[in-house]
Amino acid sequence: MSILDSLNALTKNLLGVGIVDAWKQAPQTKEASQKAAQLAQNKRLREAVMIAEKALAVWSRKPGFWERLICQLLLGKLLDNLTQQLKQWRYQVAEVDKLAANAKTILKQDTGDPLEAQILANAIAIYQRCTKIIHDDRISRVIKQHQQELQRRQQFLNLVTQAQSQAENRFYKNAIAVYLEAQKLYSTESLEKAIAASLAQVQQEEIYDAALKKVQQAESEGRLQRAIALLKNALINFSRSDGLDLLQKLQQTLKGREQYRQGLAAEKSGDFKAAASLYKNAKLLLPNSTYCQIRLALVAIKTQAWATALTHLEAIAGEQAAYLRGFAYAQQENLQVAYKEWLGLTTPNIAKQQEIIKNLSQRQRLLRLQNIEQLVKAENWENAKTESTEFIQKFGSDPLVEKNLNEHIQPRLEVEVWQEKNWRIIADKAEKAWISQPNITTLHNWAIANYYLAKTDPIKLLDVIISFSTALANITEDPTLKDVPWLENKPVQFTSVSLELKRQITVLIDTWKDKNIIEYLNLRDSYRLEVVSLNLMGEPSKWGMKIKDIFITPGCYQHYLPEWQGIFDNRTNANQKILNSLYTNWGLAMAACLEGDYQRAIQLKPSTTDNSDIVAFAQKFVAYHEGCYQLQQQKWREAIIPLKQAKPEIQASKDWQEEIDRLCGLQRQAISESQENLEFAQFWYDLLGSRDARSYLAEYKAEEIREQIANEQISPAIALRELQKIKEIDNQNPIVIDLIQRIEFNQELELIENLLKDNQFEEAVQRAKKSQHQRLRNIVSDICVDILIKGFQNRDLGFEDIYQLGYWAYELCPDDPNVQEVYGFSQELKDIQNLMKCDRFDEAVLRAKYSQHDSIPRYVAEFFINTLVKGIQNRDSSFDLIQQLGRWAYELCPEEPAFQEIYHSLKIR
Q1: Residue 873 vs residues 860, 867, 868, 870: alpha-carbon distances, Å
Q2: Is 545 helix (H, G, I), strand (E, B) or coil?
Q3: pLDDT tens across 542-570, in order?
Q4: E strand residue ranges, 73-232
């Protein structure tokens, strides 16, 4: 035998564990622990349990003092940790097995009916819960198998439902085709009956289908009365929705034709009003209304209602419609359009009429040009402008007329107007020019005219705000600010010009402060919208609405929306939600929010709105700031509705969430009543669900449970269930966790007390071991120690009882120094008893004699004396055994007064 083997054997005998074996086994145990943990992390719990059990099996379940010390040196707390992990893994595996068993039980309820899918779905859901806990190939295969079956049943159910619908609507052949598809999946008795029922109706359906073909043939031939008679006869024996729909259509068409015929008669007799009414009725009844529209146009032409005729002919193709349109245009003297309508027509004599129209058009054009020329010579600029504009509208673009209008007529008109210095007239004309031709020049003129008009007529100050702000948005494009003579070729400082113009607007607005505070506030709101928008549009402007080449501010956009509807060019990006929203009717309120004037924003909210996405954003934006304002005022109930409206945008903005959290935190400090705290916490949680909101709500819900327990309004079991629900809100809340632990502790303590009263000590200890509450384990451990000490002192306990109590106490509190001492004491008594059981009494006496515990020698000696006395009383022990027992007792306690008489009688001294 080698030295290591000898050392191993010696330590095994003396310490209860082979030190070499332990040293060799420790690395394997560490590796097994790591492998088991990795498997558990990958949800392979069954394999983790097997490896952990195998790793722990080589170590004692109830180690002695020396074995525990060696394990502590080699492995630290690894064995304890692995033991706890093993318990958790076993629990999870047991939970999975329980769930799987439940799923199997549910599956047993499945009768195989292909129309029943809920049982399978429930079982699959339970199996899927298992896969969230454990990775198990068998469970995965079961899920896949039942999912395939569930899909087949769902497909079957869909087909049967579809076929039943077809059969209910009397499309029996279609129903049979779908039933046969379903039969490929499952063949059932009910399906066979359904197919048979449908087959029984096929002959009637085929007769109906044949009749329907005859009806359609008669309809295509125009014999509507014949078709209706055939269809009615077919529907008597076989009524079906498609036949009923066709009957209604045929009857309407017949009625429409009759109305059309009556319209022709009325038109022929000259009763055009009646004819138009009859044609309109026929138009609603006939599937093809083209003929009705043409007749309506002819009636309108006969009554010289040219615009009405064109309305009826709109979007109708064909030469007849084109000819009538051309005729109507010609009657309106819109000869060029008439000529275009008649181009390409093949109607006889049309070429001659086209030539006449062409000549008339050219003559009209020449007369108009001559008239313009005469008006210009007479310096009748206003009429010259009107005539030029009408010429362009009627004959289309003409470079000469347009140049004359823009470079001569219009400038002369403007000069005359501006020279008169009648700013009201100038402003009105400048505005009209701006509306009709929005460009930088008309914008500049309009802004200047508004400014001077506002000097004398403050009522027009809103126009100054709009025009100046729009001019500022386009200031870098204003030609009057380029090559300014007195700047000597130096560039214009646009920033300085912009600031000065803004100052001028502010001065004009302030004049209203003492005159009319309501008007002042309205003007200030409008100007604030423009200033905020200009900041977002950029300097120079890069984003915003444009009309042609001019950037438009929100105020200008809203003011002229009716005139320019549909011709704006949105030059904003999709992510520029705020700038886009300023152009809506929420712009004033949004601008107030952006400037921090939340109270005014609430007043400026529009009463009507549309459902567009950008308006929805604007509404939520203002609602958010309104809610924040109410929270600032510590009026959280008033904040509920607006913040709920803004919830989608709040969830998308981290900054908004942080601000609401901050304000809610301040609001919370101002609430004293528990019920209000609970209501506010629920609102905060529903709105944000943030960490602070979760903690706050969980705390007050837990306090509510605590009060109910204190008032005996709720049982501990129900309280625990409610607290577990609360824990789902905030699983880290210390108040909730503490209350759960207290209730669980009291429940477990009550259970253990009842077990102890019934003398079920082992069951009580096992319950305490499973408890998560160390305090409970401490209590039961202290009880074990107290019983052991009192029982030892009173000599009411034997070796086994003392050891068992010491072992239980150590199992519950292995790190308690007092328990460790008691456990060492009980372990030593156990070792002594084991030696005696092995008839190694001399070793047992020697172990007791040199024990570190003074009470052990006396206890063992008393054991020998008691055994001796019983042997004498029962006369079942030999004198040699009695004398030997006396010697062992004497060796342990030679001076014990109580034993002296026995020593003397046995002649031991």
Answers
A1: 20, 10, 9, 5
A2: strand
A3: 788 878 888 888 888 888 887 887 777 77
A4: none
